[in-house]
Amino acid sequence: APLVVVVHPVSRRAAALDDVADGLQAKFSIPYLTAFALRRGAPVLESFGAVDETVRGDARAVEVRTDPSLRESEARLLAADGREIARVEAALGSPQRPMTPVQLAEKVRRLAGTALDGLLDDPARPAADVADAVFAPA
Question: How far is C-alpha 15 from the chain's CA centre?
Fold first, then answer.
């Protein structure tokens, strides 16, 4: 394979799919996500509406290997000759690289729209109260 992604075994178990048929599967495919990021940039929610067939083809050239000495949120991208091309020391949102409150709020807004506005401002608010507010009949 022209590219090799090396991850912790837990990461591989969480994203075990190599070939994908739909957008949901694409979220759990290291080869697909690697190819997507290289060809299209960081994926956003809309990136998973359908499989990008060009990216899917590219993903076939990505091999995934595991290395238990890596942290769970660490990854390495290697060329076919073993030369390291890139490294992710800690994925954004991992304990080693948590999101800032602003980044987290932006992510919630991208995923939930305005449905959660103000509902998550009080960390002590019971989850049942949040659910009641979100799922209340209109």
Answer: 9
